[in-house]
Specification:
The chain has 2 helices and no strands. It is mostly helical and about 80 residues long.
Length: about 80
Amino acid sequence: MSEHENILELSEKSRLSADITLLMLKGAGYAAAFCLAVWLIIAVIALIGKALPDESRQNPDPINRSSMIIEMPSDQFT
């Protein structure tokens, strides 16, 4: 068997272009699969949120960091 089987009898430049195109399409397929997986995870989380009863949406946040008041001594700035 020869080291370079050229079934389609392409030139070296055409074969290189075909290999590069195939690799780019493979990478695009991986990227599309990743994006679809992330979209699916977000959609599942949104569906779980819509399935919750309305009362759970009106409850206050259990960890309300925005209402924390930090008091600093006034002599620290003088």
